[in-house]
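Predict structure. Chain length: 268.
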Amino acid sequence: MRVAVLGGGLQGSCVAMALASAGAQVDLYDRNAALLNEASVRNEGKLHLGYVYAHDRSLQTARLMLRGAAAFAPLLRRWVGSDIDRIPISSPFHYVAHRDSLLSPDEIADHLSNCCGFARDEVEGKADYFGMDLRKPPTPLAGYGNVFDDRTVARVFRTAEIAIDTEVMAATVRQGVVRYPNIRCVLRANIRRVATTDRQAEVFFSIAGDEFRQSYDHVVNATWESRLAIDATVGVQPPRPWLFRLKPADPDALSKLLDAAAYEKSIR
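Prediction complete.
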């Protein structure tokens, strides 16, 4: 089975490794000269435990983030092995309740407690959270005046939440992809469109101005701001309006952001 994975960020690279592990022949496309070169590496690296989403009274966001944090290391370990143990981690985060916060310190404390309850209920066995126990309850920090200004800070909570070094994580995943002989990386490739027939899908792309076409049994679209535009070429429309968040990292980033915003507006 031949599969094209469009987008070589963290999601696309992990999808490619999962497919390759199952025996598929995978072509992994990315428009950059290297994998994991955009949003996957340009972020704070925090593995959220739901704490920062205290104003979501439904607690759905907190549950989603907690499940993602609990699954992150086990999934990476499945595909890249013990190399993930070399990824540096931050010191555990402190959460600060400002005196002018939208929520009172007690409300924030209740939210943190609820998140900890989710962790105990939903994480089986010893959680793989880069050496930290994500089920450890946040605790109020006493004597924080030498670090935080108690004129503006009402309460501080010590948590188990951490961030990882995204540069090292990206390098680790790149090395993991290379180890799979049935993954072929197609770099500097700009995806133009995808077309489907009864039996296969065709990916149309360009490299350095030259146009190419490849046929596959399946195509996985793991791009970011190009996702909706590529989906539209095969008649797939999003079920709701989308808003993209982009962090400019190159001179063309603003134009990409404006293009994405214009497309999002066009599908409303």
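Summary: The chain has two domains: 2-41+168-241, 51-164.
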